[in-house]
Design a protein that fits this description.
Number of domains: 2
Order of helices and strands: HHHHHHHHHHHHHHHHHHHH
Shape: globular
Strand content: under 5%
Distance between the termini: 15 Å
Helix content: over 70%
Structural class: mainly alpha
Number of helices: 20
Radius of gyration: 22 Å
Number of strands: 0
Amino acid sequence: MSTGVVTPDLTTRRLVAVAWPLVLHGLVTILVSANDVVLLGGAGPLVIASASVASAMLTVLVTGLAAFAVGAQIEGSRARGAGDPRGATVAASATLRVVVLAGLPVVTVTALAAPLLTREIGGTAADADLAATYLRITLCGVPMAVLAGVLRAYATALARTRVVLVASVAAAGTDIAVALALTPVLGWRGVAIGTVCGYAASATAFLVWRARLDRAERPTLPLRPTGVERRLVDLGWPEALLATFSTASGVVVAFVVSGSTSAVLAGVRLVDVQITVAWVVLSGIGTALLTLLGEARGAGRDDLFRVATVRAARLLAAVAVGLFLLGAPLAQPIVRLVAGADAGVAVGWSGVLAWTQVGWLVVCVLAVTVCRALRDTRASLAASLVGEYAVFLPLGLLLCRVWSLDVLGVMLAHHAFWIAFLAVATARARTAWSNSTGLTT
């Protein structure tokens, strides 16, 4: 039931208030992603390789299913902007139904086929039985991870992002604590159980938050269609594919430099990890901006939509400059510290070149966020596929395999990727804007 359209607060101050918990959530997630490898460090390379195969498959599954939740944020923020809080709740409930119906068969098939999948993916470098058992244990946490993902998107749509940070901290603390407690007794199984408990802690935090909402604001799992599932599927499937392909980007980079030395591969990987931190910070701001732009569209205020975009651009640019000034001088020293002198030499001044990517990141985050706010979630998928496979892969192979530019070649190819990504994303943003101006439903 509509309560009347109100003028949304799209100030920079509110953007920062919504964004900072999302940024910290992303940084905590990065730290947790490295937790399993650290805890398995004493188990030997075969166990680490096997667990890594299982973890990679789990990551693809969880990120792919959770990406469907973008519809809950887009439609929820629009409904809130239109003064229809009930519409936001319906969107979240319908998203949960879509994800459950899509996820159940996928999880079931993955569990049944785990030995075959891990054998084909891990090859001789991993123990297929160990990897399959690890995968089956962690699959028990997928329902809770998906529930947390949908409620995270709903909370973000309501601009109540502090609960997102609370849930991520709870997940990280529980994951690490359980793994530390069980690993001495159960070995690698303790790490897998810790992952499941981390997912459960995150879901529990969101469920406690949900219980504190007004009854009309509490999403449920509807047994019958709500009528908005089709739109949510249309919004969600491109994001699910994008999340799946994004997990493979590291494999593409490794393939490009596979003909180089281990020092080059380590250097490239460590520099890319540093840029990932910058991406997490900037994309966290972009996620917060999506909520504000959704509110503007729901309220029918195209003028505020444009103003909020400009303000966000200024904020993103300022943050990007700060990230560059902080990260660029440390790029090579970090590589040298972690991977040794040879990797540091291989990176050289290319680390500074890598950090200049933050300029591209700002514009790309803006373009993709505008597209999502205008219900074009295919833009980022199209831009990513074009940039990765039509530009980065062939150019990277030329620069690294033929011209032997190693780290420099990868960084130049990364810049070409972002140029191609930006060209596609901005074109889609312009088209989406021209097609939707004045349309708010």
